[in-house]
Amino acid sequence: MANACERPYLTHELGWIARGLTLELAVAILLYALHPWWPRIIRRPGSSVESARWWSVDRVRLSLRSPKIRLTGPENADVLEVLEEVSRKAGLSRTPLWLVDPYAGTAGGRAYGLPGRPRVCIDMGLLVRYDLDREGFRAVVRHELAHHHHRDVGRTYLTVSLWWAFVTTALLPCLLLSLYPEALSSEAGLRAASLPGSDGKSVQRLVALAVLSVIAYLARNMILRARELHADAVAHAWEPTAALPRVVRNLAWPPAWRAGHRIPARWLRWSARVGTHPSPQRRVAAMIDPTRLLRTGAWEMAGVGFLAGLSLHNLALLTGSAAGRYVTVALVLLALPFGIVLTLSLASALGAAGAQHQQGAARGTPWPGRDVLVLPAALTAGVVGSQRLSLVAADMEAVTPTLGQYALIALGHLAVVFPLALWTRSVLRRTPAAGSGDTPAARRRLAIITAGAVWGPLWAAWQAHAWYPSGLTTATVDAVPTAGGAIGWYAALTGRLADAYFYYPIVLVRATPLLPVGLVLLWAVPLLLARRRGPHLAPAGTARALAVGAVAGLAALGAGIALPFTARALLPADVWQGSHPAHVLGALSFPVVFANTYTAVAALLQAAAAAGTVFACHRLRPVLVPLAVTVTAALGTLGLYVSRGTLLCAAAADTGRSACDARAFLPDADVALHLHETVAWGVVAALPAALLAAGIRALAARRRRGSVTAPDATRAEVPRPRPRRLAAALAVLAMLPLAAAAAGVPQDLRIWRPAAPAAAPRPDSKSHRGPSTTVSPASGSAVTTNDPCLLGSWRVSSARQRVRVGESRLWLTGEGGTWTFRRDGTLSIDYGTAARETGTLRGRLVVLQAGGSVTAHYRTADAVLGYSGSAVRRPGELTLRVAGAYVMREKLPATFTPDHYSCTGRTTRLSPPSQTDFPYELTLVRQPPEGG
After folding, report:
1. Distance between CA atoms of 724 and 736, rounded to whole angstroms?
2. What is the pLDDT of residues 410-455, one digit of tens each?
3. pLDDT by residue (tens digit) across 843-869?
4. What own/partner pairs with CB < 8 Å and gap ≥ 24 does 847-850 have?
5. Beta-carbon neighbour count of residue 284 at 10 Å?
């Protein structure tokens, strides 16, 4: 209801935001289209050439007419010849238009122009250098041509255009309205508005706005500095002489226009470091060692994360509010492109470091291992730190996380990006320097794309839940067992496993094919990249990982056989011998608790497989650990059915009520769901186990580093499997999770689909309230019969009931099922396959579904419908799922409670006959008679 009331406001606000973004984009495009004329009207400060046609504003002189002239004429033939020679060596597809600024005394130039129309404007001072320092002249021209060769001219001026469009269309109006909020709401305007100096939210909003502006400005300058470094490196590579380094070293630093202000020298140097040009020292270093440009520092990565976080947080509130019931889907889709870009940026930074490592391998340069720690930590710090400084945090204190929630959010982000860094570093270190059929650059790109495809959606899923910090630290379902609640350890086990099972971030990730598919890609792609490169990925290492995973999987099968007998020894017979009816929705039956327990054991065994692979393998451990976990997960899913069949057979041996046959051990239609659950729990457990094992191994290796040991000859004696058999085994192993993921997509869509909004009941003034009275022909006395209004077949058009799941209460709405009232007083209810009711519990989809049919005798009296003699006609199931996981699953019951009814002939409504804490309402619509 509240969302429906807010929708007009949100639609109006979205319209204004769309208009603002369109205006900002239009201004940016206009400024970019006009940028070839900027140098004609904007003068650089500090020129020593005087002119009679200047307008001076704060040391920036604007010419009233264009001073740029085209460089032509026979007197400039020798200069043009040199320019054409340098242009041909630069490899440009189109020769630029050469212009000269006769009023510029500096020895520089500017590269600009629209696509297909490159231009280079050189200063008059540079023409003077042509006669005095021919090599210096050529070096400066090469630098300007390098901008066109690198194609950064369009990106540069588009960046500057976007900045000024942001200032004029977004920053200044927002600043004005923040200072004077009544400017648009009163005739007095600025005069009637008062400065909100005492308003804490206004101050925080201004601080957030200032932070956003500063970050955008610094990002702009970072792009401009990067282009200068790349142009220097490219220009120096064309002619590696000492001319360009000499020219750059002679540049004034800080720039002359900054030194003219009365500012302390320390501040001048600091402001110049974040300006549009790098220092001469950095520029010369980039020429001497271009691989320095491949390095992405911690500050750059933190800035990328901060910018992405600010954009996400500022868009999240409006996007989530406008999405209505699809809020979770909308937030995940909003964060998805950011997650892919951030993970690709991190993987690309590590890939660049790997390329630098390969280039420096001949010189003995080690791989910068600190990047694996520093870059993910910097990216996480930028994303998490931006949340407190966003505009949303200035207005919405309710969604501001606590310190502990900040730590949990950061830990979740690190759990995504740190394994990404380890995997990328491991794969790229083993990328061969040469290959057949494809290039090393293509292999590195494929590895980087794989990293973004696997970890980008996981990052987005976690970030979508970071906007609800309270949901990350509160229990989902306060579950209790249906029987055995007095046993302390059993009740505690039920509650703890349910809390872990229904933890919402894991539930939604489990309801996607991300983890099974991603787990396969993590080891399949590196194996494809390393084909025909045995020394880089030895089959023996792959065989060890398969063996470790198989041992852990067989242990899971053994645990599945042992757990039923363990439960039989520890629990009373009335607890484990059957499925007790759940008198309270949210009470978990023993089969559900048993399945959760086995899944937890399988997760621990996957963690053991990950740790064992770290100790058993010596190369590409971040690749081989997912391989071992996949093997264990596949066998562990099979072990779940073995455990279930063993439990049924054990119950049949004791009671004789259950059937024990081979079908109890076979997978059913929920095998994809169980595989998702096993993989999700296993990945969560395997990640810390693998990191802990790697740390222990590193410490042990450091202790052994001082002692000289003989080489281990046993490694060379490990038998290697035949490549064809190994390839066949890996193909089969890859197909199992992929097929299960594809089969589970329809079920995943049902979990992500939000529940239908609950409809309020409508009163019916024309209802029929009681039975009919007839006169017996024999005695003439009144005889009460069933209400004839109910006779016929009815379809349940809407159902609405309030239920309890654990300690939470919620409304379920739905439809489906057919009620048939007959004249002989019998009633048949056929639920078919579409009788389902849905609702949401803290954002989680709850589905109550019934199947089968029942019969009963009915009797009407005083608008009350009573039942007796009920029986199941066609067996079915009554199930309750929360986020796709079974909370209750039992045979269709045949018990009824009386209903209050109101019948109008076309519709009938059923409701409780008295006041209750769990009301309900069924609306039945009369079906046309057969053949009518």
Report:
1. 19
2. 998 999 999 999 998 888 876 654 444 456 677 788 889 999 999 9
3. 677 888 888 888 888 888 888 888 887
4. 847/750, 847/879, 847/880, 847/881, 848/803, 848/812, 848/814, 848/878, 848/879, 848/880, 849/877, 849/878, 849/879, 849/880, 849/881, 850/817, 850/876, 850/877, 850/878, 850/879, 850/892
5. 18
> How many other C-beta atoms are found inside a 10 Å radius of the C-beta of residue 405?
17
Residue 277: C-alpha distances to residues 41, 219, 226, 554, 671 (Å)? 22, 13, 8, 62, 59
DSSP state of 366: P
314-323: b (≥16 Cβ within 10 Å) or e: bbbbebbbbb
DSSP per residue, 775-834: E-TTT--EEE---GGG-EEEEEEEEEEEEEETTEEEEEEEE--EEEE-TTSEEEEEEEEE
Phi and psi based region of residue 869 (left: phi greater than 0; alpha: psi -120 to 50; beta: remaining): left
Phi, psi (degrees; rounded to nearest 5) at 701: -65, -35
CA distance to 352, 355, 456, per residue, from 441 (Å): 11, 9, 22
Backbone Cα Rg of the chain? 36
Whether the Cβ atoms of residue 556 and residue 634 lie closer than 8 Å to each other: no
This prediction's pTM: 0.71
CB of 278 closer than 8 Å to CB of 251: no
- For residue 483, give the nearest of 361, 556, 388, 574 by alpha carbon: 574
φ, ψ of residue 838 to 5 degrees: the values are -130, 160
Q: Are 64 and 275 in contact (CB under 8 A)?
A: no
3 state DSSP class of 318:
helix
Q: Is the pLDDT of residue 713 over 50?
A: no
Q: What is the rounded distance in angstroms from the CA atom of residue 484 to the CA atom of residue 481?
A: 6
Question: What per-residue confidence (pLDDT) applies to 725?
Answer: 76
Q: Give backbone dihedrals phi and psi of 210, rounded to 5 degrees, phi first.
A: -65, -40
Nearest-angstrom CA–CA distance, 401 and 410:
11
Torsion angle of alpha carbons 67, 68, 74, 75, nearest 10°? Answer: 60
Mean pLDDT computed over 886-910: 81
Residue 237 vs residues 81, 233, 642: alpha-carbon distances, Å: 22, 6, 66
- Cα 690 to Cα 307: distance, rounded to the nearest angstrom: 32
* Separation CA 799–CA 919 (nearest Å): 11
Task: Give the CA-trace dihedral at 219, 220, 221, 223, to 10 degrees.
Answer: 90
Q: Is 669:632 a contact under the CB 8 Å cutoff?
A: no
CA 795 to the chain's CA centroid: 42
The conformation of residue 434, written as its DSSP 8-state character, comes to S
Most confident of 233-247, 360-374, 382-396, 827-841: 233-247
Q: Specify which residues 852 forms β-bridges with.
A: 832
Contact 501, 596 (CB under 8 A): yes
Q: What is the pLDDT of residue 619?
A: 79
**HSE on the CB side for 731, CA within 13 Å?**
6
Q: Determine contact, residues 679/519, Cβ cutoff 8 Å.
A: yes
Q: In the structure encoding, which two tokens stand for residue 686, read together?
A: 């395997």
Asked if 803 and 918 touch (Cβ cutoff 8 Å), the reply is yes
**pLDDT of amino acid 774:** 42
Q: Is 99 helix (H, G, I), strand (E, B) or coil?
A: strand
Burial class (CB in 10 A: 0-12, 13-18, 19+), 672: buried
Burial class of 719 by CB neighbour count within 10 A (0 to 12, 13 to 18, 19+): exposed
3-state secondary structure of 171: helix
Tokens, residue 594: 């048993």
Q: Hunting for tokens 């052994």 — which residue is that?
A: 704
Element of type H or E holding 109: strand 109-112
Task: Categorize the per-residue pLDDT at 368 as very low, low, confident or very high, splitting at 50, 70 and 90.
Answer: low
Cα 435 to its chain centre, rounded Å, is: 34
